[in-house]
Amino acid sequence: MKYLKFIVVLLVLTVITACKDNASHKVSEEESVYKCPMQCEGNKTYAKLEACPVCKMDLVMVENQRTKSVADDVISDESIFNLTTTWHTEEGSTVQLKDLKGKTLVMVMIYTTCKAACPRLVADMRNIEAKIPKDKLNDLQFVLVSIDPKNDTPARLKAFAKENFMDGEQWTFLQGTESGVREFANVLAVKYKQISPLDFSHSNIISVFNSGGELVHQQEGLGVDNKETVDSILKLVQ
């Protein structure tokens, strides 16, 4: 009798395990995406594992949506998206840095009343943009962060963007709090000091971040050769 009970329990466990495996397999299939290995229809994907309607080859799985979703939500300890400061854009919107997640970021710190270094930094940013293929610009965000949040209001930043032909969707200007700006500058190793009501001394650094907010490259100086900067960006947007 004891052995009979053991066999019954074993059979029940086997059935439960099989059901779980089938359910797991079904969920996995539903979350997977497939496409033709020959790319007959470009990047078109299918929800089911079947044959390509063009070449009749079996489709191959290219990603699992659940895995991708989890990965997309992960922020590393080195990411600037861990900073929780609130910023205002030139459009008057309220954002946090994590709202920029998903795009390669090219960032620089300036102030709009600067007559010396900042115009050169702005020119350097536009020169970098000019070397990026047009079809890659949607994967990029050029971000200019003001070190003078008292004077660089969203309205002033918007006017500055228009004056410098930087009012396209790939350009974003940020005004923060004094403490938030200082915190962000420390992360980028940018040093700045106010030397008069409308004048600052500051580092001249352009920083490149991957889509997860991790620093991958910095360009220091004014009017320098930007080949390494452009190459680092192109590697991230391939």
UniProtKB/TrEMBL annotation:
Disulfide bonds join C114-C118. One of its GO terms (molecular function) is metal ion binding. The keyword Membrane does not apply. Cu cation binds at C114, C118. InterPro entries: HMBD, SCO1/SenC, Thioredoxin-like_sf. Keywords: Copper, Disulfide bond, Metal-binding, Signal. Residues 1-20 form the signal peptide. Residues 33-62 form the Heavy metal binding domain. It comes from the Bacteria. Belongs to the SCO1/2 family. This is SCO family protein. It comes from Snuella sedimenti. The lineage of its organism: Bacteria, Pseudomonadati, Bacteroidota, Flavobacteriia, Flavobacteriales.
